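Z., the sequence and structure:
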Amino acid sequence: MKFSSGSAARVRGTALLEVILALALFVVAAAIVTSGMNASTENLSRQRRHTHAANLAATVLAEIQLGIRRTSEVGEQPFAAPFDQWTSELIVTPTETESGEASGLLRVEVVIRHQDSALVRRLAQIIRVPPASTRAAF
């Protein structure tokens, strides 16, 4: 079967249109997959920072309970390397009994901040701080 020159051009034009359409569909699918992967990576990074902040806050509270860290620290305190992008701040409030007397317990809130992101993690606990004479010297 012989095609005329007009129908041969239409066949070639149709093939070119199919190739362009397939390429466009591939580009759209690749953009969607890349966007999903970027969102997943960002979410993983955010979860990692939140977990790290929670671990740092628990560590600070444990250090206070062990007497390694004092509750009298004022303002934001930077962590040593490799945690130098993180800071901690203590908010200490003495607690009272129902009659208004001092209970000997402290409400200690640890605020952990990351310098490069807007992450702020707070962890509070009521603890009995050992007297200064019984604390271990480190």
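Confidence is low (pLDDT under 50) at residues 133-138. Residues 5-134 form one domain.

Let me know what you think.
H.
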